[in-house]
Every structure is written in structure tokens, then in C-alpha cells.
Amino acid sequence: MVGDIDRPALSRLRASLDRAGYTGTNVQRTLRTDRHYTAQPGEVIVFERRLAGNSPIETLTRLFLIGTTVSAGDVDASLPDLPQGELERLGLVEAVPGGLRSTLRIVPHGDVMIACDRNYYLDEPNDSPDVATGVSSPSTLLADLTVRLEVDRALDLGAGTGIQSILLAQHAREVVAVDINARALRYAELNACLSGVDNIDVRIGSWFEPVRGEHFGVIAANPPYVMSPDAKYLYRDSGMRADSLCRQLVRDLPDYLEEGGFATILISWALQTGQDWSEPLRGWVDGLGCDVWLLHYLTDDPLTQAAKWNRPASPADLAGYGAALDRWTGYYIKEGIEEIAFGAVIMRRRSGAQNWLRTDTLHGGNGSSSALILRVFEAEDYLHSIDGDRELLEQQFALVPEHRLEERLTSNKGEWQLHDATLSLTEGIAFEGGFDLETAQLVQLLDGKRTLSEAVRARSESLGLSAEDESALRQTAVEVAKRLYQLGFLVRSA
Length: 494
Prior knowledge:
By secondary structure, this protein is α/β, with parallel strands linked by helices. The chain has helices at about 5-20, 25-30, 40-50, 55-65, 70-80, 85-90, 120, 135-145, 165-170, 180-195, 245-250, 280-285, 300-310, 320-335, 370-385, 390-395, 435-445, 450-465, 465-485; strands spanning about 95, 100, 105-110, 110-115, 150-155, 170-180, 200-205, 215-220, 255-270, 290-300, 340-350, 355-360, 365, 395-400, 405-410, 415-425, 430, 430-435, 445-450, 490.
């Protein structure tokens, strides 16, 4: 358990970790793997053998990442500004036969250090409902889908150990971190200190209860969205029926947004076999006074979902594995859940307007999508403000720098010829689109100086098109430009 939240001492710890080069990149290089965030028991044995020396990076990786016992002398040498007694007072280590053992896990994520319960990752038994988890794939997804606007106040709903709060603190004057899990919030305080952040207000309570009547410019929410028959873990199980928690939070979020404020929430929802993934969500967001972007990234069948959340940690757990699968799948049958979808809702509060709704499917990403999200919302605002598509022809569009155009060549009688092209985004959501040669070359003419109509005319003249063919090219150009604008590939320069 986390001990004293001693900011000066934790600042010295962070300085020592930095001096030792305890970063995600260096740890990955030392262990020769990118799987150090989610180490499994067999991998830990391999990691131990890779850390044969006693350099500071090796010592601290053994101590704080893979959780092995380290000699007190090696710890003293690696953390010279923190005597053993102080480390114990802070609740970071405990004395065991052979040396010192960490009581938690500290994992570097870029410039952020996140401490969490050690046994959650090292597969040591932990049936405590308030187990405090670290950074997971959903945590990263939420961080990538959160809008990074400079705001006075931001809310981290379901804050856990605080990764979203720390990221929000970089662009919000004040961050309120809310969770019902007091142990997790204790870690959040520790992690804020490790990151040198002092503008996070930690509040214990159930969902919006601690912030009734308050409003925020940005909200990030990572609720326990797993549809489960259990109420075993606070971070996973809501204790509410099916997807009712996610639906209620989505409905409540706008009440806590400032006008023009953005909220991003990760959710799961129930589907019937063959049902369009967006159909249930459209009812959730109807009439909220928000513009809404629905994103879908995965649909599981009930057995796959049950297996993911009940996977045995060791052969000794196999006996109860089948029973757990049967209990979970039986629950889904009882609730009439045939498929389980996962995704996110991004909303912006815009009252007194004709709000819009759009849907897309995620196919991977490349870091923060904040700039892309803002472009998408700007595009939808504009497209819903114009009367038809003719105005698009008079707009000056430019490709954003964060794009890659790949052209494919084919051989014809020994001569290489351009065949088609693929345009993809290199930052944020990994949207991409394929084009034939003519369309790809037209897109390359969108330089922010000529209008779309002028680009069509230039392309038509270079090809020597007839008036009829130029008209067809113009229609294609409107359709392509509109879609690329919607997906964030294009911006209007005038």
C-alpha cells in the first residue's frame, strides 16, 4: 500500500529514476522486448536473466518493473538520495530475505511514471476488489482520443491510478480526478507527485456525485464497461445490468460540459447478431444537445468475451475456468446479449443548434488524435452549414502535413506504370483511402492555393478531357474532397 505522499521525497525519487535512465525506451532496450508493460510469469524469468548486472537501470528494472528481490546495496547505489528507511516510509519497498522487494510497480510511459499494484501485472494472487491497475490498452486509447484544448477545468471520471489526470494537467488549469476506489486514487496522488504535477484535485465518490453542479471544458471517462455477472473488481465490474452504466454515463455527460466543451468516454454495448453496431448508440445520444462522433473498434461473441476476462493465471486455476465461462455466457444468454461491441463516444456541447451525428470504425492509430478530432468537428460543422455540395468547388483545400501517399506500380510489357494510390494519415486515427491514378493526381493538386474547381480544370486540361468527362471528374472531385475533409485529410485554407 502507498505510504506517505511526501512530495519532496517523491521528487528526489523521480530525479534518481531520470538519472538512471529509467525510461520506457531504455527498459525496452535492456529487456529486448516491448512486452515489459504486461509481463507474464514465464517472461519474467527471461527478464531476470537479461538483467544480470547491477547498473542503475538494471537494478531499478528488477526492483520496480519485474518485482524481483534486489540487494540493499544495489538499491542504495541506484537511489543514493533515498535511504532504505525513507523508501519503506513511502511504502515503496519492504525488507525480505536477501534484500529489498518493491511493494508496487512503477512503469515508465514516455515522460510519465505510473505506479500501480505489482500483482496485477505479475499474476500474483490478488482478489481485492480495489486492486489498482496501471496503464492498459484502453487507457492509451482514451488518452489518444481525448481533445487537448487549453481549458480552465478538466474532469477525469473513473480516474484509477491517474494517467488521464496527469495528461489533462498539461493543458488544464485544474483537473478533478474522481473514482470510487480510494486505493487507486492514493496511487493517483503518488503518480502526480512523480510527474511533478500539482493541479489535480482528487475526490472519492461514485461517478458525478463529487462534482454535482460543476462544469468542465474537457472530460475523459474510462468506466468499468465490462458487461459481467460479477461485482468482483471496481476497475472492471459496474454491478449494473448489461450496458446500463455506459448508457447512463453517456446521457449524463453533457450536463457537466461547458458550452463548446468536449467529452470522450470508452464504452461497451450489447448487440443482436447482424445488428448494425451504431443502432443502439443512436438512441443513447439522441437529444443531448451535443454533436457526437461514435467510434467502433471491436465486436466480440459472448464466449470470447468471457474467456478474455477469466483467463487462468496458472494451471492451478484451470479447475474453475470452465465454471466461470459457463457463468458468464449464461448471464449473456439471460440478458439477450448475442454480441458485445466496444468503442468510444466523443461529444461536444453545442446547445440551441441542429446537432449532427457521425459514425466511423477505428482501424488502429498513431498517437494523439486531438488535432484530427478538432478537424473532423470543424469539417462536420461546415458541411452541415452549406446548402449542397456546390460550395465545395469554390473552397481552397490543402492536404494536412500528417499524410502519406503511396503509389502502386504495375508492369505492362516490361514498362512500369502507375496503377493506383493509397492515402493514409500518419498521426491520430489511422484512416486511409484508395484511389485510381486520375483521382490521386487530382488530390495532389489541392495545395491550398487553387480552389477545388480550379484543380479539376487543371487536371482536365492536362488530360485533354471533353466537357462531359470534365463534368464527371468534377463530380468525383466533390465526392472525394468531401470524404477526405470529413476524415481529416484536408483542411480549408480560405
